[in-house]
Design a protein that fits this description.
- The structure holds two protein chains of two kinds.
- Chain A contains 16 helices and 25 strands.
- Chain A is α/β, with parallel strands linked by helices.
- Chain A folds into three domains: about 10-240 and about 360-435, FAD/NAD(P)-binding domain, CATH 3.50.50.60; about 245-355, Flavocytochrome C3, Chain A, domain 1, CATH 3.90.700.10; about 440-545, Methane Monooxygenase Hydroxylase, Chain G, domain 1, CATH 1.20.58.
- In chain A, β24 and β25 (about 570-575) form a beta hairpin.
- Chain B is an alpha+beta fold.
- Chain B folds into two domains: about 1-100, Ubiquitin-like (UB roll), CATH 3.10.20; about 105-230, Orthogonal Bundle (Fumarate Reductase Iron-sulfur Protein, Chain B, domain 2), CATH 1.10.1060.
- Helices cover about 30% and strands about 15% of the residues of chain B.
- Chain B has eight helices and seven strands, in the order ββαβββββααααααα.
- In chain B, strands 2-1-5-3-4 form a five-stranded mixed sheet, with no helix packed on it.
- In chain B, a hairpin with a 2-residue loop joins β3 (about 65) and β4 (about 70).
- The mean pLDDT of chain B is about 95.
- The chains are: A alpha/beta, B alpha+beta.
């Protein structure tokens, strides 16, 4: 069989692709406003990766230490190594308190203080009064805050009756006769049926792509599907050189050990027993920004002070923290340590090493959540009908390094905001569905995976994915330089060629997971290119992008965002926004903790 | 290591059948999880179907019946399982393919207990106050990951999955019944006070034995029944 241009069509006011916290928050808003929407998710909603977030969500509630949104804004900009857009960061921090109270009203079981208010813990990079005392800004539900938020948002969507398309995979964006985004082709994973969902408003909330690295904290579903769709539709990705390596992943395996562990008093130690963060961040020590701590661990290991037979990890010690605090506030961490390391952190330290955790880059958007792309004159213009939120988007509130506790905030703030943007557009112009969609590119893509007879390759999708992950880990890890990245780029060419020749062996229609991984792999390879090409170009060190051949930040040349286009791997750049509306600009300065 | 996996593809098979796979021990290490082995088996045969996502026991995707017990493959250590491992789909619900079941009824029962907070109208200047003691009542209930290991181990649920809410849904029901912020306490209890929805639970405790998160749905249902007796 081959695919032709005939698919069944369903029409909606708006489509939300991805049922993590971002998608779920926006779906809630759109359903509440009475719009006919569909929430499309490749897994059942509560399986989305928001569920794995642990530590908490930042808001200047001031429940534990005095706090102001202005201080949160300052910390976020500093944490971003000044690459974050100051207008967007200001917006997010101003919304934070209200949006966290809203989550509380939705039912999130936040941990509580004795006075009944939401418990807030200390997290990395947080300060009072623009860089002074440590702040306690991270609102937490034990160490399961993501789970608590995702389930509560799903529950509220059940209350309002949101329409879900569970276990549907979004294959590609569809354009109308004028080249505008107007629909998406989806595959029902249960029976392999494809159908067109047509809508003038498509919101991508497809999450991250940490699967592009071998060692990562990410779910296997985090394959950057929205990013691949956007690149194939001809739009750029922004700041893809910036990947956060979380300092404390379970060594050799990658599972996340929350920053909350250090927030509650945990200490990093090397093989000599030294609490080494004192050397790298004399003032805040273990609660420096994640990029700083990740580099410190990598240096300790590189210089031979790692632990274990291969000296390849460091220790996270919480044995001095009272048992009841661990039971009450870090139960999930204890469980992970027992399951995956066979140790009880109450007694023995956790073996940790930096692991790929979060993508600061993504689909460029404005504060309203509209995807933006440069026009012929280089001015950023909204892409009609296309929106992006959460980890797949780059607003940019995280710049070159995200602060812990800001991603759960990002997803709900921009989830709500973007739903309101779409709501306004629908009020002005109700959805119409009389447009013809161009199906040729997506049909070609589907047919490519039907090859059987002509396949001469013994290669497999799984093997190519593994090799890609290794190329990325070696070529674009915590530390980078020109030769290793150049080599990675050459290896990506080989990967790309293998991807073009590989065939699948399973042609069934029901839960064909090999075909699904093939579609996912196409997205991952595009993301590999976006990352390496962007990282090679940026000849400075900033935030999570640490180059051993360009060790300093260079604001004269590089205080700007990278935009990567798939066509010929082209790069363009755009300025960082330094004009918040309600606060004076935070001037770039050397970043010390 | 030998794996006996229940296979079923509705496009080609009338009924499920067992297929045996061998996995070279050299590919595995002392701390390998069952999910790691399944990924390796899928390299042998890419058509083996099972759900998985987070790989660390929080998303609840990969519930399956392992040597007769319902478990999550990602947090089940191979070393506990012996040299022959038998994998079947979670029992009692329709099979879609291989180890993947149709959880529609399970989700329907969850939705039917109205698992969402209904609180006093929003005031976004303040959070609801809740003492640590009130909040502690939610512990052991809110952590559920909806993997289905409990409900699909429950004979009462096997018998009446359309009428009996099942342990997962009742655990969720209890979570909202005891939430100090909820204003529908009595309404919830009245709706749950039915011979089938709640009282089909005979406290066999398979649910508690099966829960991979160490939760105790059986006790939660017992508490729910006690609250009904007191408050209704």
């Amino acid at each position: 069989m081959t695919f032709t241009n005939s698919f069944s069509i369903e029409t909606f006011d708006a489509l939300v692709i991805g049922a993590g916290g971002a998608g779920m928050r926006s779906a809630l808003q759109l359903t509440e406003h009475g719009h006919k929407i569909a929430m499309i998710s490749k897994v059942f909603p509560t399986r989305s990766h928001t569920v794995a977030a642990q530590g908490g969500v930042n808001a200047a509630l001031g429940n534990v230490t005095p706090d102001k949104w202005e201080w949160h804004m300052y910390d976020t900009i500093k944490g971003s190594d000044f690459l974050g857009d100051q207008d967007a960061i200001e917006f997010m921090c101003r919304e934070a308190s209200e949006i966290v109270r809203e989550l509380e009203h939705f039912g999130v079981p936040f941990s509580r203080l004795d006075n009944g208010k939401v418990y807030q813990r200390a997290f990395g990079g947080q300060s009072q009064n623009y860089g002074e005392e440590q702040a306690h800004r991270t609102c937490a539900a034990a160490d399961r805050t993501g789970h608590a938020i995702l389930h509560s948002l799903y529950q509220q969507n059940l209350r309002l009756g949101t329409t879900f398309y569970d276990e549907f995979y979004a294959v590609d964006l569809l354009k109308n006769q004028d080249g505008e985004i107007n629909g998406v082709l989806v595959m029902n994973i249960h029976d392999g049926e494809y159908k067109i969902l047509q809508s003038p408003h498509i919101l991508l909330a497809t999450g991250g792509a940490g699967q592009v690295f071998r060692n990562n904290t990410n779910a296997s579903i985090n394959t950057g599907d929205g990013l691949g769709m956007v690149l194939r539709a001809g739009y750029p990705l922004q700041d893809m050189e910036f990947w956060q390596f979380h300092p404390t992943g379970v060594s050799g395996k990658g599972m996340l050990i929350s920053e909350a562990v250090r927030g509650e008093g945990g200490k990093l130690r090397n093989a000599l027993g030294e609490a080494f963060m004192e050397k790298y961040a004399p003032r805040v020590k273990d609660l420096a920004s994640r990029d700083v701590v990740a580099r410190a661990i990598a240096i300790e290991v590189n210089e031979g002070r790692g632990c274990g037979p291969d000296k390849d990890y460091v220790l996270l010690d919480i044995s001095h923290i009272p048992n009841e605090i661990i039971t009450e506030r870090l139960p999930g961490i204890r469980e992970i340590s027992q399951t995956f390391l066979g140790i009880d952190p109450v007694k023995d330290p956790i073996h940790v090493y930096p692991t790929c955790h979060y993508m600061m880059g993504g689909i460029p958007t404005n504060i309203s959540g509209q995807v933006v792309s440069p026009d012929k004159d280089g001015n950023q213009q909204p892409v009609k009908g296309l929106y992006a939120i959460g980890e797949c988007a780059c607003v940019s509130v995280h710049g070159a390094n995200r602060l812990g506790g800001n991603s759960l905030l990002d997803i709900v703030v921009f989830g709500r905001k973007t739903a309101l943007t779409i709501d306004e557009a629908l009020k002005k112009t109700p959805a119409q569905h009389n447009q013809t969609l161009n199906l040729t590119p997506v049909v070609n893509r589907l047919n490519r995976w039907l090859n059987k007879a002509e396949c001469g390759s013994n290669d497999t999708v799984v093997q190519i994915k593994k090799d890609l992950q290794l190329v990325m880990e070696r070529g674009c890890g915590v530390f980078r330089d020109q030769p290793t990245m150049q080599k990675a780029l050459e290896e990506l060419e080989v990967i790309q060629e293998r991807l073009e020749n590989v065939c699948i062996s399973d042609f069934s229609n029901v839960f064909n997971l090999e075909r699904l991984s093939a579609y996912e792999l196409e997205n991952l390879v595009t993301i590999g290119y976006a990352t390496v090409v962007s990282a090679l170009a940026r000849t400075e060190s900033r935030g999570a992008h640490s180059r051993v051949d360009y060790t300093e930040r260079n604001d004269d040349e590089w205080l700007k965002h990278t935009l990567y286009f798939q066509n010929n791997h082209t790069l363009t750049f755009k300025p960082v926004n330094l004009s918040p509306k309600h606060h004076e600009m935070i001037k770039p300065k050397p970043r010390v903790y | 290591m030998k794996f006996i996996i229940s296979r079923y593809n509705p496009e080609s098979d009338q009924t499920p059948f067992d297929q045996t796979f061998e996995l070279d021990d050299a590919l595995l290490s002392a701390d390998s999880m069952l999910l790691d082995a399944l990924h390796l088996l899928r390299e042998q045969d890419p058509s083996i179907a099972y759900r998985s996502s987070c790989q660390e026991g929080v998303c609840g995707s990969d519930g399956m019946n392992v040597n007769g017990k319902n478990r999550l493959s990602c947090v089940t250590s191979l070393s506990e399982l012996g040299q022959t491992i038998t994998l079947r789909p979670l029992p009692g619900l329709p099979i879609i393919k291989d180890l993947i079941i149709d959880m529609t009824l399970f989700y329907k029962q969850y939705k039917a207990v109205k698992p969402y907070l209904e609180s006093i109208p929003l005031d976004l200047e303040h959070e609801h106050l809740q003492t640590p003691a009130e909040r502690a009542k939610l512990d052991g209930a809110y952590e559920c990951i909806m993997c289905g290991c409990c409900s699909t181990s429950c004979p009462s649920f096997w018998w009446n999955p359309d009428q009996f809410a099942g342990p997962a849904a009742l655990l969720a029901a209890k979570r909202f019944v005891v939430d100090s912020r909820d204003i529908k306490h009595i309404d919830r209890l009245k709706e749950l006070d039915s011979a089938t929805t709640t009282f089909r639970c005979r406290h066999i405790q398979n649910c508690t034995d099966a829960c991979p998160k160490g939760l105790n749905p059986s006790r939660a249902i017992q508490e729910l029944k006690s609250i009904m007796v007191k408050d209704l």
